Amino acid sequence: MTYYGDKAKPRTYAARFASPDRSELVSVVIKPSNQLKITFLEAKDITDLGTLKEASKIFVPGGAKLYSARTIKVKDEEDIRTYYFYEFGLDKEHVAVMATVNSGKTYIAGATAPETKWDDDGVKLRSAAVSLSIS
């Protein structure tokens, strides 16, 4: 129950930051993993969504030009967590995405800017996406 009743809209983003002109964005989205890939079992790791290549169909839109894709493994307190990183271009936009899964939820951090601004700000935006860390 919300204070706004049925007029309340579900939040799309867990966090979203924009440059003053709103051309550069950093966003964090949290979605149930079964919304991304239909399965009866709860995803425990991003590899449950498929290999790096198979999961690219989930995280990289069709028609995008893939510049980079890699698996990143990070040791946390209890285990080794796997992250997938994708960098691609689509419609004059440059996008960096980092994703992982924890307890059936997929955490996605993305950064985007026009291709014309990526040369100047791409390192910072890529770093923002790659900074995603789930404990």
TrEMBL record:
GO terms for biological process: photosynthesis. SUPFAM superfamilies: Mog1p/PsbP-like (SSF55724). It comes from the Eukaryota. Residues 26-133 form the PsbP C-terminal domain. One of its GO terms (cellular component) is extrinsic component of membrane. GO terms for molecular function: calcium ion binding. PANTHER family: KETOSE/ALDOSE ISOMERASE, PUTATIVE (MOG1/PSBP/DUF1795-LIKE PHOTOSYSTEM II REACTION CENTER PSBP FAMILY PROTEIN)-RELATED, KETOSE_ALDOSE ISOMERASE, PUTATIVE (MOG1_PSBP_DUF1795-LIKE PHOTOSYSTEM II REACTION CENTER PSBP FAMILY PROTEIN)-RELATED. This is PsbP C-terminal domain-containing protein. It comes from Oryza brachyantha.
